Amino acid sequence: MKDSIITVVGGLTGIIVGLIISATVFGTVRAAPAYEDQKHADAGRAVSEFVQAINMTSAVVNKANQSLALRRILLRYIDLDIIGLYTISSQSTTATEKKAFLGAFKAYFADTYAAKLVKLKLKDFKIVDARKVGKRDILVTTTILTSKGTTKLHWRVRAGKIIDISVAGINLSRTLKNEFSSLLRSGGVNNLIKVLLNKVSSQVSI
Fold this sequence. Notes:
Elements: H1 6-21, H2 38-56, H3 63-77, H4 80-87, H5 95-117, E1 125-133, E2 137-146, E3 149-158, E4 161-167, E5 170-171, H6 172-199
């Protein structure tokens, strides 16, 4: 059952990574469209800065330093508190359990996804739209040119931080929630914490 956690990476991340690695890329991150208001502009800027920060790490020669830089980027631009708490929202947890889980989740997420992002160069990445969804969020739609044509990625942004990513109808936070559910059912949040920490290959400063 613990092996099911591996499919989190193989699911949405595998698809996103596969699409971007196969891209035929030219140029850099393109200019964003005119925004409706400052909130929309801030959301677009958060996505652009995230992509540009990832691209900049390609110049880091030392692999350990590059991996550390990518972990810090993930922790800075993605709101892992919101994503993490959503994945265990079906469970009744104490404040202590939530704190312990978020620490494990952030370490696991940063460690796992940084390893995937080392291979990426997100170029010819264009913001095409930003619209309000719900009461607090902005959905930023971007495109990337791949060998099979243009692919859309959607970024949900709240208060200047990314809280979800989706591609081809597959949603990051929902995928994580579904993958964690069996571990939660079998042993509760403490079981999930143990599995996540076992998957962490190096210490991450949160």
